[in-house]
Amino acid sequence: MKLSTLLQCSLLSLVSGFSHENLHRRTSSCDPSALNTTVGTYYVKENETISGLSRITNRGICDIARLNRMADAMIPLYTDQKLLIPPESCQPDNSTCLTVHHPGATYADCVKGGPHTYYTIKGDTLRYIALKLNLTTEALQSTAQGDNVDAEVEAGQFVKLPQCSPSTCSFHPITFTYGTYKDIADKVGATVGQIMAVNPTYNYTSVAKGEGAVITVPGSCEYTGSNITVIS
Ligand SMILES: *[C@@H]1O[C@H](CO)[C@@H](O)[C@H](O)[C@H]1NC(C)=O
Ligand SMILES: *[C@@H]1O[C@H](CO)[C@@H](O)[C@H](O)[C@H]1NC(C)=O
Ligand SMILES: *[C@@H]1O[C@H](CO)[C@@H](O)[C@H](O)[C@H]1NC(C)=O
Ligand SMILES: *[C@@H]1O[C@H](CO)[C@@H](O)[C@H](O)[C@H]1NC(C)=O
Ligand SMILES: *[C@@H]1O[C@H](CO)[C@@H](O)[C@H](O)[C@H]1NC(C)=O
Ligand SMILES: *[C@@H]1O[C@H](CO)[C@@H](O)[C@H](O)[C@H]1NC(C)=O
């Protein structure tokens, strides 16, 4: 794919609402004409991580994640998995697609508007599932099995989630062409965990390049009363 095509894709993404500012911003010390604008393909080696791949290719973690439409950049890579390598950028983005704990952040006791279950994926821990759903780990532990919140949980399990009652979300299908769930979540007022939970079969490794994957996105999740209780 040529850069012009990629820019078009970014523009399309912008139109459909998922912006990618970093590709366009430039620093004075960076010479754009010296960048490697080739979009390459890469086969992941055993135990390779996206951080390692970012370093050896000099591409931003989030730039890689977005071009490959990863639900979350932190889902472990598979050996021999084929990845697209984005063009080099003067502003490589290693951070804005990540769901991380910020000191002083507050978390909720329940999920607003559903869904009621989360389907675990490779690399999940209870702490990370809670973070993705903007829940306290205590709230998640009230409905999920497991005492050690940092132990990796087996992939492919349903985990029950505490629900806020009364609350609601609206759900709508979109064609996911570029970005990560974090980009979508921040825009629609839902969490990465909610989008994962309503799309348990989404697997970017099996979606063809150029064709969007259709996912369902929860949005406008809110309380619908003033006396909120946690139900499960
Ligand atoms: C440019 O990037 C592509 C894709 O990662 C890579 O295959 C190629 O070797 C790079 N070219 C140079 C000159 O580094
Ligand atoms: C990958 O990680 C596993 C588990 O830590 C280890 O047994 C294996 O030797 C590693 N493989 C390579 C190629 O580093
Ligand atoms: C972040 O991106 C830059 C530029 O691609 C890369 O050189 C660097 O190693 C990355 N950082 C991490 C922690 O992967
Ligand atoms: C997470 O939950 C807290 C407490 O309900 C709330 O103040 C905050 O806005 C939520 N953050 C997100 C990203 O949903
Ligand atoms: C996604 O697809 C890859 C390759 O087809 C497969 O190895 C992996 O197990 C799948 N992941 C999930 C969560 O289904
Ligand atoms: C709030 O809802 C709970 C559960 O439905 C009920 O037991 C409680 O009386 C309600 N409190 C108020 C102030 O309405």
Automatic annotation (TrEMBL):
Keyword annotations from UniProtKB, A to Z: Signal
PROSITE patterns: LYSM
InterPro entries linked to this entry: LysM, LysM_dom_sf
Cleaved signal peptide residues: 1-17
Domain LysM as annotated: residue spans: 116-161
SMART domains assigned: LysM (SM00257)
Protein name: LysM domain-containing protein
Upper classification of the organism: Eukaryota, Fungi, Dikarya, Ascomycota, Pezizomycotina
